[in-house]
Request: fold
Amino acid sequence: MKKIKLIFLTLVFSFSFSFQSSSQSVPASFADLAERLMPSVVNISTTQTVVTNSNPFPFEFPPGSPFEDMFKEFGTPQKRKSAALGSGFIIDEKGIVVTNNHVIQDAEDIIVRVNGDQEFKAKVLGADPLMDIAVLQLETSEKFKPVAFGNSDKARIGDWVIAIGNPFGLGGTVTSGIISARNRSIGLSRYEDFIQTDASINSGNSGGPLFDMEGNVIGINTAILGRNGSIGIGFSIPSNSAKTVIKQLIEFGETKRGWLGVRIQDVTQEIADVEKLGEPRGALVASVAENSPSNKAGIKAGDIILEFNGEKIQQMKELPAIVARTEVGKNVKVKIWRNKKEINKNVVLGRLETSDDFKISEKKSTEPQDLLIKDLMITVRKLTKEDISKRKLPNQTTGLVVTKIGNKSPLRDSISVNSILVEAQKSRIKSATDLENIVKEVLNSNQKTILFAIYNTENQRRYIGVKLD
Reply:
C-alpha cells in the first residue's frame, strides 16, 4: 500500500512540476515588452499626385462614337494628393528604417512618425520588389532606438509573437498571437517563405515588425488573407531571408542575388523510383541556360540537385532562395544525383539581375495575360501602369481591363471592351481571382445582384448593378 501511495505521489509531483514548467513560457503580460519596443516602430505615410480629367459635358458619348476622340481633350486636368499608410521599424540609431516596398512604391513624399509625435521626411535608400522590402533613411541628425533581428529559423510553430504597427492609421497598436505555420507560399512575390501568424494584422500594418518574446524582429508583416481585414491569417517575411536583402540595399542601393542558371521542378515519387534515389528530394534540373554558371560547370538537364553550398535541398522551392542569398562570384560546391550516384560540381555564381534569363522572365511577367471569367462570360487582363498613365487614372487604381464580352454575358449591355472593373460589391479588385471569388459569393447568395465600380471608355468612374443568372 505504501509503495502504491509513493508511486501516486511521485506521478502527481511530476505532473505538477511539468505543468508549472510549461506554464512559465506563457506570458502574464506583454506590457514590459511592448513598452520597450514601441519607440523603435514607426508609422509611415506617403503621398502621390494624381491627375484626372473631368468631363465638361453633362452627357457621355457612346462607345465608338466619332465624337469620342474629337472631344476627349476637352476634359480639365485636375490634380489631387493621394495618401497611403504603412508601418516600419528602426534598425540603426542613425534613422535607417525597414518597411515593405509596396508601402513606399511610387511615393513622392514619405513622412515617418516616431514615438507618435515626431515627424521626419525620409528618402529611399533602396527597394526590392521581388521580396517586397524597402529601406529608408530619415533626414535628420537625431539618434534613435533601434531593434535587432532575431534568428527566424529558430521560430517554432506555437511560439508567442507580437506585432506592432499602424493599422488603419491608428499608430502604436500592439497585437499578439502565435506562429501558426512556417514556409508558407501564397503567390505574392518571387521569393516566398512566409511565417504565418494569427496575431491581428490589418491594412496599415504592412512593413511593421513581428517580434519574438525576447524583443527581436523575426518577421516583416507583409500580407493578410481576406479582403475585409484580419481573419487571423497574416504573413511575415522571415528575418533571416530579409537580412541579406536589407544589407545589400543599404550598401549598394540594389540587390545582388546569386544566379545558377537552371530551370527546376519537383522530384516526384515516380521520378525518385526511376532514378533509384530512395525518396523524393532535391530539385530536378529541367533545363540549363546557355552560358550560365551551371552550363559552364557541367550541370545537365536531368540532374537532381541534392545539396547547394553545404545546405541540403529537401524540396525544389528551397533552392532558389538559397541561391539568391549566396554571394555573387562565390565558388560553390553543388552535389547532384546523376546516373544513380552522387557527384560534385563546382559552380562560380553569376548575378541574377544582370542575367539574360532574368531579363526575359521579367519581360514575360510584365506582359498582361487575358483570362476568362466564366461566370460573367468576359475576358479580362490585369490593369498595368501603362494603362494608368495612358488613361490618366489615379495612381493607386487597381482592376481588370475588359478585352472581350460574350454574346450572353450579363454585362453586355452595361459595359464595353476596354472598360475597367475596379470594384465589385464595394471591394477593390486586384486580380482575376478577387473577381471570381466575389462573383461566386453572389451566385451562392439569394440576391444574385452584383454592384460594380468601373471606368468606362471615357475614363469616367461609374457604378453599375448587374443581375446574375
User: Anything to note?
Assistant: Residues 262 and 288 are 5 Å apart (CA to CA).
